[in-house]
Every structure is written in C-alpha cells, then in structure tokens.
Amino acid sequence: MTAGTLKIEGKKFRIVPEADYQAMRTALRRQQLQAAEDHADVIEAVRRLADPNEKRIPWTQVKKRAGLA
Predict the structure, then answer these.
(1) Could you tell me if 25 and 31 are in contact, meaning their C-beta atoms sit under 8 angstroms apart?
(2) pLDDT tens digits for 2-56?
(3) What is the H or E stretch that residue 5 is in?
C-alpha cells in the first residue's frame, strides 16, 4: 500500500488508494461483526449460567466429546 501524508492547518491526513481504503473498511466491518457476535455469545452464556434449570455438562465430558481428552 502506498500512502501519502497531507498537512492542512497543522493537521496530518493520510492519503491511501481507494482499493486499500475499501480493504481496510471491509476488515474493520468484519472485526466489528465478530465483536458483536462475541458479545451476544457472552450474554447468552451469562443468561444460561444464571438459569437454575439449565443442565450443566462437566468439562471432562465436553473435552471427551470434542476428542480432546
């Protein structure tokens, strides 16, 4: 990526090619979507942990099912 710097009224601005800018925007959107999904997963996990009727599976059994034990 080639970029240039432009200074206007003491403020610096980076100039990048349009394709590079679009690639950065796409990457940022993906990160934001992943963060939103992670947040939703945490909320669901907290909700389930707070529910006394939710069946809990021991970690050793989870590892065995996943082939990690």
Answers:
(1) no
(2) 789 999 999 999 999 999 999 999 999 999 999 999 999 999 999 999 999 999 9
(3) strand 4-8
The reply to whether the predicted model has a pTM over 0.85 is no
- Using an 8 Å Cβ cutoff, are 43 and 50 in contact? no
Report how far apart, in Å, the C-alpha atoms of 51 and of each of 47, 48, 59 are.
Answer: 6, 5, 18
Tell me the two tokens of residue 36.
Answer: 């939103």
Residue type, 2: T
**Is 54 strand, coil or helix?**
coil
Q: Which domain holds residue 16?
A: 4-65
Number of domains in the chain: 1
